[in-house]
Amino acid sequence: MAKTTGQPTLEKKPLQKEINLDGIILSYKDNGVNGDPIVFFHRSSLSSDSFENQFTAKEFQKYRMLAPDMPGHGNSKPAKEPEIFYTLEALTQIMVNWIEKLDIKNAFFVGHSTGAHVLMNAWPQISQRAKGLVIFGAPPFSENNKLEDSHYGHPDYALTQQSKLNTDEVSRIAKLFVKKGSELDNLLIQSIKKADPAMRSILAESITMHSVMGNESENIKNLTQPIAIFQGRYDKILKRTYFDKLEIPTLWRKKVQLIDNAGHCPQIENPEQFNQLIQQFLIDQVI
Prior knowledge:
Elements: E1 15-21, E2 24-30, E3 37-41, H1 52-55, E4 64-68, H2 82-85, H3 88-101, E5 107-112, H4 114-126, E6 130-136, H5 147-150, H6 167-176, H7 186-194, H8 197-210, H9 216-221, E7 227-232, E8 257-259, H10 266-269, H11 271-286
Parallel strand pairs: 3-4, 3-5, 5-6, 6-7, 7-8
Antiparallel strand pairs: 1-2, 2-4
Helix pairs in contact: 3-4, 6-7
């Protein structure tokens, strides 16, 4: 899936770095710029590579851009104790530890799906380091939330929670992540293949069994910083109307921003509009 025509980009790639967090080797991208940070968090089965179109966009080059690969994703090593470190609670704490270790401050945090759930759960620990929050592909859950309230129930959604995948199943997940009829980006295929198979089922079970996301909607309700919510207009996974039921006092522009010609991965499918929205959100917080 090519970048949107007319979108100015840079060829310089960010540095790929590693950090040891109490025995967990975490890989992350860092463009090394001395500016306010924009920190991107990917969804499960993908990686920091899913934000390539943001790292190369000229409009963001004055910001320090960072993006970690969660354990078992991208260039981060698989967890030695997957049952412990692939739960949402553990992934959230690992990401908090990473933020604290790098002493990230005055940041705009951007989360996609699982990455957004990590941020919403981590918010009480990281809010003092934040200027704003952007989430997409992620409905803030409450204790009484039922999956059918926020999700369409696509038949291939269960594959995102399945450990081992054959070639056809990998392709079906990739197709689920983009709007109907879109050309499949090889980045999606390779990221799904590279992710540790054990992660998918353990992460899904941790969410189902322990209701660890029950405080998300409350955290969003109590935000003092602005939050922007994006959604691909043709997302096959999430119901946009779910957000209408939530109380979000600091919601940017007072509504969810729909991104045209995009499904669950608008940062890949329509980077031009995605980046424009991010840029305007950043500008609005300075004014």
